[in-house]
């Protein structure tokens, strides 16, 4: 299973779902960024990441020519692995710069299943929305309010539940 982050323009998941403008980005290594970074970055419209990749590649080549080719090869392999591991994070960064906001997190086998799961949660009106703060139900709502001077043994109020949690699921 892969974790996908769901992004929508201006953070409005319902309007973006209706317009089919939701973006699902996996939390995993990008094979395209590892094997063909000079094609992958422009294909994904990651112009700043592509420019940084060019600068880093030229710097590694200059290092190889002036210092040590063996060490430069190790640095080059390390940079290629880092770029592949950070590829989808770079896509998230570009989405944030474009104005897309994180509206959900879904675990699924592939993007189609992630979309189906997210839209199923979005369509269920009884579930809290991602990012909305829901107050935990008080077990003693019928008790009178405590006085300002509370004894030291009294427990503090429970923190609010945030995200897809269903009220009552708290430990």
Describe this structure in words.
- With 171 residues, this protein is an alpha+beta fold.
- The chain folds into two domains: 2-123, no CATH class; 132-171, no CATH class.
- Helices cover 47% and strands 15% of the residues.
- It is built from seven helices and five strands, in the order βαβαααααβαββ.
- The chain has helices at residues 13-18, 31-35, 37-43, 47-66, 69-85, 87-98, 111-123, and strands at residues 2-9, 23-26, 100-108, 133-134, 161-162.
- Strands 2-1-3 form a three-stranded antiparallel sheet, with helices on both faces. It has a two-stranded antiparallel sheet with strand order 4-5.
- Helix 3 packs antiparallel against helix 4 (47-66) and helix 4 (47-66) packs antiparallel against helix 5 (69-85).
- The longest helix has 20 residues, at 47-66.
- The protein starts with a strand and ends in a 9-residue tail after the last strand.
- The mean pLDDT is 80.
Short synopsis of the structure:
The chain has helices at 13-18, 31-35, 37-43, 47-66, 69-85, 87-98, 111-123; strands at residues 2-9, 23-26, 100-108, 133-134, 161-162. It has 171 residues and is α+β, with helices and mostly antiparallel strands.
Average pLDDT figure? 80
Number of helices: 7
How far the N terminus sits from the C terminus, by CA atoms, comes to 25 Å
Estimate nothing, just give the exact number of structural domains: 2
The radius of gyration is 23 Å
* Spatial order of the strands forming the largest sheet: 2-1-3
Low-confidence stretches: none
Largest sheet: 3 strands, antiparallel
Record field, number of beta strands: 5
User: Element order, helices and strands?
Assistant: EHEHHHHHEHEE
Shape: elongated
Fraction in beta strands: 5-15%
What share of the residues lie within helices?
40-55%
Based on secondary structure, the structural category is: alpha+beta
